[in-house]
Specification:
Elements: H1 19-35, H2 48-56, H3 72-84, H4 91-105, E1 115-121, E2 123-125, E3 128-137, E4 144-151, E5 154-160, E6 166-168, E7 178-186, E8 191-192, H5 197-230, E9 232-233, E10 236-237, H6 242-272, H7 277-305, H8 315-326, H9 333-344, H10 350-354
Parallel strand pairs: 1-4
Antiparallel strand pairs: 2-3, 3-7, 4-5, 5-8, 6-7, 9-10
Helix pairs in contact: 1-2, 1-3, 3-5, 4-5, 5-6, 5-7, 5-8, 6-7, 7-8, 7-9
Length: 358
């Protein structure tokens, strides 16, 4: 298996074959972060300048373009970097979710521009399909919304422009657009996806959120280290106090624990594909681990920053609130903990799953 893809944080060192890509993504992210200082809002609109840079460099559809030569490793590098810099763009939704699902179902989508997926339950009434889907990322700002509606045992897929839908805008705790989409379309506008399409779609989304959380947690630790070095109390930096040093060390250790689990998920997707039981197991482990790590790291980061860290104008807020939001998407920690328990009790050795022996 390939590993170490999500390198970074306080223990980052050395170079690898993804160094150039990592630097490119970090450069785009850094420019986006600096340009939006003092301009954040609720909801935080899509960064169209950053999206344009990503499209110009061919980074928006690496996974959904057959001849791109890129895979989960490259996508993970980009997602982590953008999350670390708080870039508000629907890259996960465009590449890993909407682009993949549309191709799998044979549904045409625009060749450029952002995409998103609305996953929900269909309500059938004769020749019409209706649905109300909450928390759809960037629905109002996308070039097309790929609808993925459960209809019994089938997953109905269609692509339409936002103007064809009723959209009520909203946002998550981290300020990212999360809209409510209301659908009323002819049944004949939909195509049926394969039996495993929904499970893989959710797994892809959970995988991407795990990767993005690593970027956000890296930022939280980096900000905390910088803040405690710069802020003085009783005539010396906060970082000189032993209690602060212990808190920083604990934060860094927790993030490295989460990084190991996320790297396992990246390696499983790279080596076996998102549709494999190897990826299923690894993503489940990563979601459970991150669900344990996020609350403790976020709490410590805000304790070290004090009151300033809870304001929307502060860079820490962007990292911690998005990490908290992402950890609940595509299945919360309790859901994946139950799944992990069932997998463990199924009689199949998890190690055999990871090494491909079953």
């Amino acid at each position: 298996m390939s590993g170490g893809v999500l390198s970074g944080g306080v223990f980052a060192s050395g170079t690898d074959d993804l160094t150039d890509l990592r630097r490119l993504a970090d450069d785009i992210g850094d420019r986006s972060f600096n340009a939006r200082i003092g301009h954040r809002a609720l909801p935080d609109p899509m960064d169209t300048a950053a999206w344009r840079h990503l499209e110009d460099t061919g980074l928006t559809r690496l996974g959904s373009t057959a001849d791109s030569g890129a895979g989960p490793r490259e996508i993970a590098v980009i997602l982590r970097a953008l999350a670390r810099h708080g870039v508000t763009v629907p890259l996960t939704e465009t590449d890993l979710l909407a682009g993949w699902l549309a191709a799998a179902a044979g549904v045409a989508v625009p060749e450029s521009g952002p995409l998103t997926v609305a996953l929900g339950d269909a309500v059938g009434a004769g020749d019409r399909i209706t649905a109300t889907v909450p928390a759809v990322p960037f629905a109002a700002e996308s070039a097309a919304v790929v609808l993925a509606l459960r209809d019994g045992d089938s997953l109905l897929v269609a692509a339409c422009e936002p103007a064809q839908l009723s959209i009520a805008t909203g946002h998550n705790a981290g300020g990212e657009p999360r809209d409510t989409v209301t659908v009323d379309m002819a049944r004949e506008a939909f195509a049926a996806a394969g039996e495993q399409a929904e499970a893989e779609l959710i797994r892809r989304g959970a995988w991407a959120r795990c990767v993005q959380i690593i970027g956000a947690l890296d930022a939280a630790v980096e900000f905390s280290v910088a803040h405690t070095r710069e802020r003085e109390q009783f005539g010396r930096p906060l970082s000189a106090f032993q209690a602060v040093q212990h808190s920083l060390a604990t934060m860094a250790g927790e993030v490295e624990r989460a990084r190991a689990a996320a790297n396992l998920a990246v390696a499983a997707a790279e080596d076996f594909g998102f549709g494999s039981q190897h990826a299923d197991y690894a993503v489940t482990v990563a979601k459970v681990t991150l669900g344990q790590v996020v609350p403790s790291v976020v709490t410590s980061a805000h304790q070290l920053h004090g009151a300033i860290g809870v304001t929307i104008e502060h860079r820490l807020w962007l990292a911690t609130m998005r990490a908290r939001s992402w950890v609940e998407e595509f299945g919360d920690t309790a859901h994946y903990a139950q799944r992990l328990g069932r997998l463990t009790l199924s009689g199949v050795d998890p190690w055999d799953v990871m090494i491909g022996a079953v």
